[in-house]
UniProtKB/TrEMBL annotation:
TM region positions: 12-31
UniProt source species: Elysia crispata
Domain Sulfotransferase: start-end pairs: 78-278
Gene Ontology terms, MF aspect: [heparan sulfate]-glucosamine 3-sulfotransferase activity
Superkingdom per UniProt: Eukaryota
Sorted UniProt keywords: Disulfide bond, Glycoprotein, Membrane, Transferase, Transmembrane, Transmembrane helix
Catalytic residues of the enzyme: 87
PANTHER family: HEPARAN SULFATE 3-O SULFOTRANSFERASE-B, ISOFORM A, HEPARAN SULFATE SULFOTRANSFERASE
Gene3D superfamilies: P-loop containing nucleotide triphosphate hydrolases
Coiled coil feature spans: none
Name of the protein in question: Sulfotransferase domain-containing protein
Keyword Metal-binding: no
Protein residues bound to 3'-phosphoadenylyl sulfate: 168, 176, 271, 300-304
Length: 347
């Protein structure tokens, strides 16, 4: 009798143990990936509409269910970050990327990996817009790239995060910084671009705004190269669709952005959103987009100061080694006026 009882007990205990194990394993898995992802209802996902494998790992092991696609919106932590650079068009890039139906992005710079780190990950998550599980969230704080401490925090947060970087012709970047500073001052305190430059120690100042390479090289010591996409503001300005397409490929999103999403505005001299395009309503949460014209509200397109020829030559001369260094580092060359003739000679 007693020998017949034993197998009966294990018949109950063993499956019970396995079920418990699987259940807690599943809970842990969900917790690890994104606590805000609702367990039910499942969003129907196939490898086809899934963003890249690495971005989709939260779906692996979650049972899939056929039936109608259900909207399961939640606030999700970013899987890609725009980490630099200041005064290089990162706001326009973020805005242009957010036209993609699979991208959501908070409008504000959250500075979480720099000064707001103490507010905690749940605060960071609470700042994110709602998204479905096949959309990715992109946060932009251009100062992240300058702080190794913040890059290390990002690595700790997610070593697989994709990093987007935008750079700009150093001369235009200086002009943009100048215009930005003058706009903050009362009219009477205006000084010319030349005076502004020479108010600072020339070499150090120009180097500060030109040396993208050292900063990117430092970031390469924290994250592998393949997790970075470096684009240029000039390309974004000339051909926003091609730059957004680079990001689509890099983030392994479906190709959705086509030429008719943007229209060139002759008055502004810039591309603006096509306000009649069906994607346009999704960018209206961006307070930097003008609802009527579809253009960036920010003082984009304000005139850059004219340049004194001698000063221009000095700036280019000082910054050229850093531009060369950048192009070598990222294995890419941008179409930057003033620099092209020197760079092409070198090749
Ligand atoms: C001061 O700066 C503003 C904006 O940059 C410009 O429109 C204005 O002409 C400048 N005034 C002088 C006196 O330079
Ligand atoms: C703007 O979008 C509408 C609707 O998709 C389209 O018919 C039109 O051709 C687009 N305009 C441009 C200039 O591409
Ligand atoms: C171009 O932009 C200006 C200023 O934002 C706007 O008033 C105008 O309507 C736009 N033109 C077109 C054709 O959209
Ligand atoms: C930059 O200046 C140095 C001397 O100051 C000169 O030797 C060099 O030829 C200049 N380069 C360019 C590109 O003008």
């Amino acid at each position: 009798m007693s020998s017949a009882k034993k197998p009966n007990v294990s018949v109950i205990i063993v499956p019970l143990f396995l079920i418990t194990l699987v259940f807690f394993g599943f809970l842990y898995h969900v917790y690890l990936n994104d606590a805000a992802v609702p367990i039910l209802p499942y969003y129907e996902l196939t490898q086809d509409n899934c963003t890249p494998y690495s971005l989709c790992k939260e779906n692996i092991g979650i049972p899939q269910r056929s039936g109608p696609v259900l909207e399961a919106k939640a606030r999700r932590l970013p899987r890609a970050l725009i980490i630099g650079f200041n005064k290089c068009g990162s706001a326009a890039w973020r805005s242009f990327l957010s036209i993609h139906p699979d991208i959501v992005s908070p409008t504000l710079e959250l500075r979480f990996f720099t000064e707001n780190h103490k507010l905690g990950l749940e605060w960071y998550r609470s700042q994110m817009p709602l998204s479905t599980s096949n959309q990715i969230t992109i946060e932009k704080t251009p100062r992240y790239i300058r702080s190794v401490e913040s890059l290390r925090r990002i690595y700790e947060f997610n070593p697989d995060v994709k990093l987007l970087v935008i750079v700009r012709n150093p001369v235009s970047r200086l002009q943009s910084e100048y215009a930005h500073e003058m706009a903050k001052l009362p009219e009477t305190s205006n000084i010319s671009f030349t005076d502004w430059i020479y108010r600072n120690p020339f070499e150090g100042f120009v180097t500060y705004w030109s040396d993208y390479a050292s900063t990117i090289r430092r970031a390469f010591s924290v994250f592998p190269h393949h997790q970075f996409l470096v684009v240029s503001e000039e390309d974004l300005e000339k051909d926003p669709v091609s730059v957004v397409k680079q990001a689509e490929m890099f983030l392994k999103l479906r190709p959705a952005v086509t030429n008719d999403v943007f229209v060139f505005n002759e008055t502004k001299g810039f591309y603006c959103f096509n306000t009649s395009h069906p994607f346009f309503p999704s960018v209206l949460e961006n307070h930097e987009v003008d609802v009527m014209s579809g253009c960036m509200i920010e003082t984009k397109g304000r005139d850059h100061p004219s340049l004194d020829a001698n000063l221009l030559h000095r700036i280019v001369n000082t910054s050229l080694p850093y531009v060369r260094d950048l192009f070598r580092l990222i294995h890419k060359q941008f179409d930057w006026k003033y620099y092209n003739k020197y760079i092409q000679e070198a090749c």
